Amino acid sequence: MNTDYAILADKLTRKFGTFVAVDHVSFSVARGEIFGFLGPNGSGKTTTIRMLLGLLHPTSGTASVLGYDITRHNDEVKRKVGYMSQKFSLYGDLRVIENLNFYGRAYGVWGRQLVARRQEVLKLVELDGYERTITANLAGGYKQRLALATAIIHSPPLVFLDEPTAGVDPVSRRDFWRLLYRLAAEGTTIFVTTHYMDEAEQCHRLAFIHNGRIVAMGTPGEIKEKQMHGQVLEIDCDSPGRAMHILRAMNNVNQVALYGTLIHVVVPDARLGATIRNALQAEHITVHHLTPISPSLEDVFIARATSDEGQKAKDEG
Question: E strands along 144-194, which residues?
Fold first, then answer.
């Protein structure tokens, strides 16, 4: 039993008929870290979690969670981890304390231990004083905190959070991540999926998954420094929609994406900025500024996803 890592996955694969949902995914998660698993909807994030939880058998490949093989010892895995799904699995007609009691007993926590642990998690997620509140009457951010509390009521060393802040306002998202850092500081390993890049920046390490494949992995700093091939130019100009059409038709422009009213392009060399400026101005588009910038995580993810699409097409061809 390897206990050096909270999670070890080796060529983990899941097929549904001929569709490959997760394609030879390999990664490790150290104990006590916040590991972010990023990707668009349908990229394989939830399928990967379901395999790691022992809820779905892999088609091929292996993985261990807390040292337990996910196929041979899935009952042990289920008992020892916490899980917060995309849809809060709370009972709306129960009071906050009743939801905690239900989940605590389901995880084998009873009596004085349950009473003590209940008070600990209520304080941790800052819901003390809300014990008698009907769950359906809680605001969205407070329901989110309660869902986290039910996932950690049994003091699991590892918690899986599947897009826990989807649809929640920015202030509640910030507060939720503050709670995650408190958990990690106490030694809990956190595996979290998200599509918010500001949340990804707060993870200790990340993996980007696209079409079932991991296309980049490392710390946020490492990914931005090493995974972007080329220079990102930020363009502020009139008529950004028309400008993007022109830019996509240009040679040596590898990527074009819109960020609000600004355009990001990836080019092999920053010196191509003069060529881009001239091309836009020749089409009577005023360029207010064109500046080389450091890549954001979103820039890197779009670039790696685009590269993966090209590689997939080549493999299938």
Answer: 158-162, 189-194
